[in-house]
Amino acid sequence: MTVKNFLVSETTFFELPLSLKSRILILVAVVALLPAYFFPLWNMSFFSNQYTDGLVLHIYSYQLEGGKTPNRDDLREINSLNHYIGMRPLLESDFSEFTWVPLVVGLLIILALRAMVLGKMSNLVDVFVLFVYFGAFSMLSFYHRLYMYGHNLDPTASIKVQPFTPPFFGSKQIANFTVNSFPAVGSYAFFAFAILLLLAILLSAKRAKPAKQAAA
Amino acid sequence: MKGNHTKLTWFGLGVLCVLVLGGILVNCSRKPKVERGDTAEAAIATYVAPGDTDEYYLFYSGGHSGNVYVAGVPSMRHIATIPVFAPYPATGYGFDKDTKHMLGGFNWGDVHHPALSETKGDYDGRWLFVNDNANNRMARIDLRDFKTKQILGPIPNISGYHGGSFVTPNTEYVLAASRFSVPLPKGTYEPIENYATKYKGIVAGVPINPQTGEMSVGWQILMPPFDFDLGDAGKGPSEGWAFWTCYNSERATGKLEVTSTQKDRDYVVAVNWKAAEQAAKEGKATTISGVQVIDPKTAPGVVYLIPAAKSPHGVDVSPDGKYIIASGKLQSITTVFAIEKVLAAIQNKDFSGDEDGIPVLNYDKVKEAEVNVGLGPLHTQFDADGYAYTSLFVESAVAKWKLGSWEVVDKIPISYNIGHLSTAEGDTMHPAGKYLVALNKLSHGRHMNVGPSQPESSQLISISGEKMKLLYDAFTEPEPHYAQMIKADKLKPVEVYPKEEMKNTNAVWDVKDTGVMNQGNDVLVKMIAVRSSFEPNKIEVTQGQHVTIYLTNIEQTTDELHGFGLGEYNINVVVDPGEMKVIDFVADKPGVFPYYCTNFCSALHQEMQGYLLVKPK
């Protein structure tokens, strides 16, 4: 009885129409996600006595970019320094993420807009679940990248260091460098997208409650 | 009689003893009087905290070292050396193909008067020109990277290029002149007895390409064998004129100290350079050694002579361009001429005579004032408030005087024997005031004892207030002749040559493009220098082969310089980030020769090395 009831109520839930507010929120969420295309998702910075201004690395959804001034190319510099410990150079071509992440983001936007137009809860929940999965997968993949760069060191390197994982979130002292790693605007856009979608779900779900009770 | 004599002798000896002992005692307690300003005030005024930078660049000539030195003002810290006329292994200058070619086989030069390029009479921060008094060359330093980019010369017909490198208000020309007249063309033999008639002086304009700064040989003017000394270009109302002082209008030879100082007056030469340009264009010139040389006799209106106090040294035009100030170094006055009066005299043909057909103006008609500055005046600089500062060599002092009222208002002692002086942007139309640097010929041990070969002294003086104040003593390598002081924010040099700028296809940026190519008698090497290795790290050649190494520093980070020293082959080249240099030599010595990074670069700098293996023939 309970299982059946649950299934029925869930089915009813997925069949719920989306309120206007929810649909507007979906649009807002899509707009909020757009910065993920233009701004870095993650920033890393490396400070030491020689680099008091910090070497910086911006990770975008589609590219890797080092800080660049007429006097220094940070990505080049990071690779120059890393080669001493045998770390693979950070090359854009090594990251398949830069092709599939923008594709997936676009796909999610299309699905979100579809949910908005069709106005059905099930579509919205689909987008939300897919997005959470995508987010979690991306984070894990990023962590795995960091782990691999720090552990897959060339055994012939001139300076032998204990394998390490560069910080994923927060600060860490690595040799003479203080390394900081924090999410950036692009990630906040992802976060905002998720929150707004969740809010859209909740808003329409609340509206559904009296109807549910009536059915019971 | 005899007894008296003995008494007198004893008395005399006694007096002598007292004098000698007294002299010894006095000498022991005597210290040279040290001139100094208020210590705390001076310390604060010149202190530039670690990490902070100076307000002004000072470019001072290094005389017979062949270099130009760069210091910061007010700290007076020496920051960089720009080699110009002499090889300088510290930066690899004169060892790679291009700079070796530029030096043209000379191992030294005598850098005299640096001149910053100007636009509308003010420094534009593009180039610095310096002349070589010894080998008659002129060099251009590009201030984008503080490097010597061109050396022109030895310039035909110019002998003893002292009268440069003063620039016209829009850097149309850099001035040039002969200090040591010789028979022309160079290479001609003529007995010294014929000096007065057969030896020739030259004053000239070296044209500058306004876009590239490229210097070329322009027109020259044939002059009597006077010794043309220093110059300056007119500006404002005197724009279009160039001035030089000259000594030895006696046309004397031998011991010039005596023979050239017999007349009461020598000259300031006034050249209408626009007229000279025109005369050359119209072909009113004869060609000597491939140069258009104008004879003033056949091109009237080009040159005039203004009588000046004898043996004048510096000639300086006031910021407003109205006055031409010439200092007779053997007198106690500096003479001010008014351009207005000079132009009127020329207009009215008010001449007192001529020298080889060159009209001589009437001293009294063109003189504006005689300023009683003090003994041995040499050079004059200016500030923003209408004051002039004249260096006094004999008196070891600087006199500050007012333009217009011609009154000396202040004087400061200098240690010792000041030659040139430089105020901030002090020879432009808008001097910046604040500081004056006295470039002195003698330091007389005002520094730690370094033995008999002593450095020169350069003193920083504040000219912000009514009274000049001594702030700092700096000691400079031989030998500063003039300097240019420019506001730091007017220069924006690069610290890295961007990769995108490299057009030379022999430069390689990737290890896979490096390599050694054997082509008959030639070996071509494309090499990369990057922390901390050379690629390739082995070059195999056969004795007698001609080796050319294209060495690229692929760093793009400030201060990551790499050196390439090749032991016992007398080669050391330094490449800056993003720079490529060509090293070429004949591998004439068989054996194995290490090459290594000479410019400390990284933790594994010591390991940055390789071998040149030369197989015996």
Topology:
The complex is a heterodimer of chains A (216) and B (617).
Chain A: H1 2-15, H2 20-33, H3 35-38, E1 42-47, E2 55-59, E3 64-66, E4 68-69, E5 72-73, H4 74-82, H5 97-118, H6 121-151, E6 170-174, E7 177-183, H7 185-215
Antiparallel strand pairs in A: 1-2, 1-7, 2-3, 4-5, 6-7
Helix pairs in contact in A: 2-5, 2-7, 5-6, 6-7
Chain B: H1 2-29, H2 39-46, E1 56-61, E2 67-73, E3 78-83, H3 97-103, E4 115-119, E5 122-132, E6 137-142, E7 147-152, E8 173-177, E9 182-183, H4 195-198, E10 199-207, E11 220-223, E12 227-233, E13 241-247, H5 256-259, E14 265-272, H6 273-281, E15 286-288, E16 291-294, E17 303-309, E18 312-317, E19 323-328, E20 334-338, H7 339-347, E21 351-355, E22 358-361, H8 363-366, E23 367-371, E24 377-382, E25 387-392, E26 397-402, E27 408-413, E28 418-423, E29 435-440, E30 456-462, E31 469-476, E32 483-487, E33 515-519, E34 522-530, E35 533-535, E36 538-542, E37 546-553, E38 562-566, E39 571-575, E40 580-586, E41 591-596, E42 609-615
Parallel strand pairs in B: 11-16, 34-37, 36-42
Antiparallel strand pairs in B: 1-2, 1-32, 2-3, 4-5, 5-6, 6-7, 8-10, 9-10, 10-11, 12-13, 13-14, 14-17, 15-16, 18-19, 19-20, 20-23, 21-22, 24-25, 25-26, 26-27, 28-29, 29-30, 30-31, 33-34, 34-35, 37-40, 38-39, 38-41, 41-42
Q: Could you say which overall geometry of chain B the principal axes of the C-alpha atoms support?
A: globular
Low-pLDDT regions of chain B: none
Q: List the domain count of chain B as a whole number.
A: 2
Strand order of the largest sheet of chain A: 3-2-1-7-6
Distance between the termini of chain B: 96 Å
How would you characterize the largest beta sheet of chain A? 5 strands, antiparallel
> Which sequence of SSEs, written as H and E, runs from N to C of chain A?
HHHEEEEEHHHEEH
Strand content of chain B: 35-45%
Number of domains of chain A: 1
